[in-house]
Design brief:
This protein has 14 helices and 11 strands. With 389 residues, it is α/β, with parallel strands linked by helices. The strands form 3 sheets. It has a 7-stranded mixed beta sheet with strand order 2-8-7-6-5-3-4, with helices on both faces. A two-stranded parallel sheet has the order 1-10. It has a two-stranded antiparallel ribbon with strand order 9-11. It starts with a helix and ends with a helix. The structure holds pyridoxal-5'-phosphate. Pyridoxal-5'-phosphate binds next to helix 5.
């Protein structure tokens, strides 16, 4: 098996443990992106420094809904000694709850250790040396890293610079004969979203031209979207094989540390993905938290509103300084600074603010900033002004 330079780098780093400043500066999500599939094997992460504002990993700064925290506490005392198939709730309970939420059957749901596990499994299931992988660039990197590591050709289609959106026409064209096409909607890091009609037309064309290509809609930031023309791809996924959606409790639900995600699709597609899952891939407190969070309807609205306000404040602040952001539908923004993200990041780090990593091929002009609390963003904006002056 060929070992890419980055994969090799990942091996080297995991063997020698990354340094605390590296981890603190980049955050866990950023770090695993940086290091590739093997990076996720790093086990020791330093806590944030006192007073640090960590807006580098697209997390909900306030954490899970209170009912989920309560459920975590309860489950821990009662069931920490149990495997997640013997706990209350167990893996089947959460699977059933997700099926109910999406109006489908448990056969249409696969749980993951975060949605990241399913992204990884999809690359294993659907790509190989003869069946390439299609993605945008920049987009969420983990599945392309895995596909490349497995020997598949990765075709990365640049986003449209004018609006930060994925180039769906070019991705469709590249999909002929592909094993898997990854459509991150909203896209990380550009933060933009495609409308329901765009997504349906895209799926129709790919099915017509390349019926065996599997389409993966990554909707990790779904709950943060406010665009009126956005529609999730759930119906498309449930309709027939070869299309699936992934969602996660890590973003709006504030449970990145709980590692619970899931995939939804036709039972045949889900059965294939399940073959690659670790038999017990979830944990007892995470199941309890997810189970409680699904019932928290107000939380979605409240957290979406909180994020939108803090985000708009940040976008407006930067716009007043002359820096425009794409139309963000997520809990992060991608802002055009016209200078390297690395310089901005280094400047911010000196003032105790950790912002996102480099996102080639746009790392010389754009930076990603995750949205923290309003208080954090107010303080971070003062730092941005100083660093950019
Ligand atoms: C677009 C996207 N998909 C998937 C993930 C994986 O998240 P998790 O494994 O925590 O569900 C992330 C994490 O940042 C992401 O940004």
């Amino acid at each position: 098996m060929p070992l890419s330079r980055r994969a090799f780098f990942g091996l080297e780093v995991s063997a020698s443990q990354p340094t605390a400043p590296l981890i603190i500066a980049r955050g866990r999500e950023a770090l695993s992106e940086e290091l590739g599939p093997l990076g996720s094997e790093i086990g020791v992460i330093q806590p944030p420094q006192d007073g640090e504002i960590r807006i580098s990993s697209n997390e909900n700064p306030l954490g899970p809904p209170p009912a989920a925290v309560e459920a975590i506490r309860g489950s821990f005392g009662r069931d920490a000694g149990r495997y997640p198939f013997n706990s209350q709730p167990n893996m089947s309970d959460l699977t059933r709850a997700m099926a109910e939420k999406h109006g489908c059957e448990p056969d249409n749901i696969v749980l993951g250790a975060g949605s990241g596990e399913i992204l990884k499994n999809a690359a294993h299931a659907f790509t190989n040396r003869d069946r390439h992988f299609v993605t945008g660039t920049p987009s969420y990197l983990q599945p392309s890293r895995v596909a490349r590591y497995l020997g598949a050709t990765v075709v990365s289609i640049p986003v449209n610079r004018a609006d930060g959106k994925l180039d769906l026409d070019a991705m469709e064209a590249a999909a002929r004969g592909a094993g898997l096409i990854f459509l991150c909607n909203p896209n990380n890091p550009t933060s933009t979203v495609h409308t329901g009609s765009d997504v349906r037309a895209f799926a129709r064309t790919v099915r017509r031209n390349s019926p065996n290509t599997v389409i993966h809609f990554d909707e990790a930031y779904h709950e943060y979207v406010t665009h009126p023309d956005y529609e999730p791809a759930m119906e498309l996924a449930l309709e027939r094989p070869n299309v699936f959606v992934t969602r996660t409790f890590s973003k709006l639900f504030g449970m990145a540390g709980m590692r619970i995600g899931y995939g939804v699709g036709h039972r045949d597609t889900i059965a294939t993905l399940r073959r690659y899952s670790l038999t017990v891939n979830t944990n007892v407190p995470g199941l309890a938290a997810g189970y409680a969070a699904v019932r928290e309807r107000d939380f979605v609205r409240t957290e979406q509103r909180r994020n939108t306000e803090a985000k708009q404040y940040t976008i407006d602040f930067l716009a007043r300084l002359g820096y425009e952001s794409y139309n963000s539908q997520t809990n992060f923004i991608f802002v055009e600074l016209g200078k390297p993200a690395a310089d901005f990041r280094a400047g911010c780090r000196e003032h105790g603010v950790a912002v996102g990593r480099d996102f080639p091929p746009m790392e010389r002009t754009h930076a990603r900033i995750s949205i923290g609390t309003m208080d954090e963003m107010t303080r971070a904006c003062a730092v941005f002004e100083e660093v950019l002056a």
